[in-house]
Structures are given as C-alpha cells and as structure tokens.
Specification:
Layout lengths: L12 E4 L5 E4 H5 L4 E4 L2 E5 L4 E4 L11 H18 L7 E3 L8 E3 L22 E4 L5 E6 L4 E6 L4 E6 L2 H5 L2 H13 L7 E4 L9 E2 L1 H10 L2 H7 E4 L13 E4 L1 H11 L7 E3 L23 E6 L7
Helix pairs in contact: 5-6
The protein binds zinc ion.
Zinc ion binds next to loops.
C-alpha cells in the first residue's frame, strides 16, 4: 500500500500514480516547474491498493554496473518522459558527499553514464543551470535533495544534501553560483528541502556535533542537533544520550542565510526511514536502492 505518513498536515507534496509513481512538490507544481521524487514502486493502482515494488533507479555498487546501468537508465528515461523531458537533457553528478556545485553546460547533457554517474566528469554533489529544459537528477536514500528555482532568471539547481553537504552549506554554494553566473537575486529564489530522514530517525556521533559547532557555530549546532536518550546494543543506557541531526532545519537555515525569503522555502514533512515500506532508506538496514529526484529548468506557471 503506497500509504505515506506525513509528520504534519501541511500539503507539501502531490502523489502521482500514473506510470512510475512519484511525489511532486506542490510549490514547484504551482510555478509550473516539472519535478519529482520517486518511491520503491514501479507501478501502483490506487483503486485496488496494490503495486509492484523494486524500482531500480540508482546503481548501488561497482559489481552491479553492467547489469543495473541500462535498467536504471531506462527507468530514468521513463521518469523524464513523465515530466515532458528526456535523459538526452539530463545532467547527473558523482555525489561524493561534497559541497561542490557544477554549472551545467550543453556538453554535460545526456552523456552515457557509468553506473549512475556521467563518466565521473564532475566530483560534485550539485548542479545549477540557466539552460532552458535541462533535466537535473540527484539520488538519495535518506539524504534529502534540495530543489532551487528562480522564476525571474529562469534558472534552477538541484543538490544532494547529506550531513557532509549540509555541513558545507551546499544549498548556499548553489545559490552563490546562480547569483554570480546567472545574475539571480536570492529574493526571487524558491527552494524546497525534499524528502529525507527526519530528526527522530537520524542518530549521529559526537564528531558530527563537533563539526557543526566548529564550522557553523555552537548556537547553530545546538539548534539542529539535540540529545536523545539512547541505549547501547545490550540495552544499557548511554550516559548523556545520542545526538540527532535535523537535516531539514539545517538546510532551511542555510537557505535563509543565502538570502532566500522565508515564505519561499518549503521543508519536507516526509521521512524516508519512517516510511521505509514506501521509500528506500539507508538507515533502515540493507541499502537496496535510492530514490531519484528530478527537476526540469522550465517555468510554466506563477505562484
Ligand atoms: Zn523518521
């Protein structure tokens, strides 16, 4: 049953069940920007409540490349077509948990991939573009994508924001590139922190707190990391508990710092681990696959 549990009643996403099912972000839909975030489902019938799971969208290891690459590529092309695009327009990155962002050029589009990745051309975790109709793709199995669009300059960015990219403020790096390269004004930008792991599910070591406290500030670290009661493998209480990281709030703070207006930011209320029956989730055990996030640099509406 493709039954998603939301952490509040806000309508952030729309569910589409035609073809390969996906969520779209309501804010981006209203701007007329084609976008998606996939699930485990290959197909789903909302009338009978039944579907086929096991969608392969990302290549998970090097042994798998030869067999999985064509399957993932074919599935991404179906998804692209569902957005009125094609993987001939796709720009796809390495995703190495960096905060590096690439400015897409025409040479980057639709090139054959090794695994998920465009011949390892770019050691980056985000792409920005002002080329019309470019399709940006990112993967995540708990790490949220951050969708960034500027309807005035008609530019878009998509970043993969795991904890390391979040620490490196990758959404701000993307926006800085959009400002410098495309003349964007952050006041015109809309941004969405997409589905990913929630604070309750995201236990972290002390070193993550220390990293945020030194690279951000102690006050910010205290805001986005909180101590939860915790037990060790034998059920014994861990003195002081364990830190939990709020990736949603961390990336929202970074978007505000980059100058995006508060009322232009949406934050996911869908956790991939709380919904691990619907979404692939790295933290829920075996990493079987990842979700695909897609964003097309096209604007057909107005908020
Ligand atoms: Zn959760």
């Amino acid at each position: 049953m493709l039954n998603i549990r939301y952490s509040d009643n806000k309508r952030i996403f729309n569910l589409h069940t035609e073809g390969i099912p996906y969520l779209s972000v309501d804010l981006l839909d209203r701007l007329g920007v084609p976008n998606l975030f996939t699930t485990r489902y290959i197909s789903y019938d909302p009338v009978t409540g039944t579907g086929i799971k096991g969608l392969r969208q990302a290549v998970m290891n090097t042994e798998d490349v030869a067999e999985a690459s064509p399957v993932c590529r074919r599935n991404r092309n179906i998804l692209a077509h569902q957005l009125g695009s094609s993987i001939s327009m796709e720009c796809i990155t390495d995703q190495k948990h960096t905060n590096y962002v690439h400015v897409a050029s025409k040479e980057d589009l639709g090139i054959p991939t090794v695994g998920n990745f465009a011949l390892h051309r770019h050691y980056v975790d985000g792409v920005v573009t002002d080329i019309p109709d470019v399709l940006l793709t990112a993967f995540g199995g708990d790490c949220p994508p951050v969708y960034i669009v500027d309807p005035v300059r008609k530019a878009a960015g998509l970043v993969h924001a795991g904890w390391r990219g979040t620490l490196g403020r990758i959404p701000e790096v993307a926006i800085a590139n959009m400002v410098v390269r495309f003349g964007c004004d952050p006041a015109d930008i809309y941004a969405v922190v997409g589905p990913g792991i929630c604070r309750d599910c995201y236990e972290m070591g002390n070193e993550v707190y220390d990293a945020f406290a030194s690279e951000w500030s102690r006050a910010e670290a205290d805001r986005i990391l909180s101590k939860y009661p915790a037990v060790d493998a034998d059920g014994k209480e861990i003195p002081g508990g364990k830190y939990h990281l709020d990736l949603r709030e961390a990336n929202r703070l970074t978007l505000l710092r980059a100058g995006v207006p508060e009322d232009h930011i949406e934050v996911s209320n869908v956790c991939t681990k709380c919904n691990s029956d619907v979404f692939y989730s790295y933290r829920s055990g075996r990493m079987e696959n990842e979700q695909t996030a897609m964003l097309v640099n096209r604007f057909g509406g107005a908020v």
